[in-house]
Amino acid sequence: MRIALDVAAGDTGLAPNIEGAIAAANAWGLGFLLVGPASEVRSELTARGIPHSDQRFAIVDAPRVIPMDADPAAACRDTPDASILACARLVAEGRAAAMVSAGHSGAAVTAALGHLKLLPGVPRPALAVAVPTPRGHTVLLDVGANTECRPWHLLQFAAMGALYSRHVLRQAAPTVGLLSVGEEESRGNDLVRQTAPLLRAGGLDFRGPVQGHDITAGAVDVVVCDGFTGNIALKLIEGVAASVLNSLKTEIRRNRIYKAGGLLLRGPLNRLKKRLNPDEYGGAPLLGVGGAVVVAHGRSNSKAIANSLRAAAQLAERGVDAQIRKSVASLQLSLETAKLQTLETSPAR
Question: CATH says 120-281+320-349 is which class?
Answer without folding.
Answer: alpha beta
